[in-house]
């Protein structure tokens, strides 16, 4: 799995020697810090240190729902080595924070709304002392009955001053009286998945002489985090600085703001640097999870299998706070019918608060949940009509020019039929041999209890779609500066490298545009102009676009004197392989010669075309762009034990343009593998709102041994004309699609409905063999 991250140093990271590397867009340029990461010398937040360092610990609620009667910090404050204890009383500024919707307190004061909610934080001269002092804070609770069923939230007493309903979207498209000759119904449940980052949260806060604070964090949206922190600390934003350290894996927003904020408060209170490293348990309790979802569907089709109408109800469990649930619901409702032509659609979507752990942005939010449901419905239709599942899908797929149920016309490339045909026609893998040497191919592996005679093979399909960038009127903008001096280029952009490969892409853009071989990408901090969050392919599009525009401005500065000297326009000059040549061959010089003695720089912004919020009927041009994927899954199922082995996943994806082949393949493979975990193993269990087994033993992530053969059978490079370079994001849509494809294959192998993810063994057992 690709896991690139931004540098944690305070100087620009030098690129490897230019003569050893391919150059420009389309080349598999390796990451500049790949060696440091593989050797274990790359500094992450957990590795940072400062003179006079104190250690922090956070006291978290053991209850899912309780009234706080009293908080006594006396014993903790009196412990030797303890330098500060902070609670809600020590928050000088705005007490609420949260991504999307600021509705979460820094520390609980009157009511605890979820298991693990912060109550107090301690700074001490040793990490063990800090943890013991946190445990010594005495909190008297009046335990309340938690509301953990999202359906109960509609009638329950308000859990929050803003109420239990976060958002309701009624989507009405077409004729409500339309019916089809064939009708299938289903109810589906998607479990609570955790992003489970490779490294748990860690950070360092350092007080400044001006009364401000610097935070060294693995933030994926540093300017938003800076503004939130400043508001909570009662400071102006210019007195809070965030320096982005290495990001050890990010498939979501990555950093829990409830983790960041106590850190800075302690540094401001003590006047000393304070470091906090979360345990894996604290990580599970603190950050946002994928929304558990209940979905009810009814599909209408004619006798030829063409969709007539889709009706659905979608209920997202947001947990205790809203976070980005409004955005997730918009995606779920908008994509509830999938990449299919549906003339009539009536979708009701709700996001509600409960006393479960908070949900938020996780890769493919909203789209992943509905994909599992609508693809199950397509399998039911195919079975009822006696059609091949792939053929049924082909009769209904979207294409460019079709209209989504939200009323928005698909203007970007949408080669859905081409993708599906590619995976359908790809040769199937061979059946395993029935021999002792091949026992490891059985579900459960060589030590499993399965018998070859109980194993059935299934083939299933999934078609998925996601939106790129923000939606519903989000102002997507990024700023970048490109400087060139003595033949060396430096890129300054606050786009955080979260593993998507932005730093590599930025180097390639500058190499391609300016013909400069040595390109450095500066570390990210909030002294730079904002670039926004690192999600939904934003930085490839918006930040990459800003880098390209700045590089082109520098290119014009470089070529103008030459063009003027020879009496021609800069458009008649080109830069190729480090050489500047004119169209007629009269001018020929090297970039290095033209750059000699010059210092050139330019700053540029990229802002995609605006979108609009969904209206009262769920209609509107809400999305900038869309990406699509088709996956064919082949699974072997032991129908006696219910164990499932994913044999192969064949992937076809529209990528717009391949900018870095190796990096793109790694991102697709990582996304597909993440989907395997969602389909089969990943489920954060929360009985009565309490997180059970918050560790990597109780939460089963797929390992290398669980990863199937992943065949990238086709990449459609039909460029999106409104996107810089024509490229599309590639990470999220395989995550969205692969769980649905795996569930489809298990249905094909067992004949069972498989209406829940992750797939439980009992759902794959066949009793009437």
UniProtKB/TrEMBL annotation:
It comes from the Bacteria. Residues 39-145 form the Aldehyde oxidase/xanthine dehydrogenase a/b hammerhead domain. SMART domains: Ald_Xan_dh_C (SM01008). Residues 1-19 have a biased composition (Low complexity). Residues 1-29 are annotated as: Disordered. SUPFAM superfamilies: CO dehydrogenase molybdoprotein N-domain-like, Molybdenum cofactor-binding domain. Pfam families: Ald_Xan_dh_C, MoCoBD_1, MoCoBD_2. This is Oxidoreductase. InterPro entries: Ald_Oxase/Xan_DH_a/b (IPR000674), Ald_Oxase/Xan_DH_a/b_sf (IPR036856), Ald_Oxase/xanthine_DH-like (IPR016208), AldOxase/xan_DH_MoCoBD1 (IPR008274), AldOxase/xan_DH_MoCoBD2 (IPR046867), AldOxase/xan_DH_Mopterin-bd_sf (IPR037165).
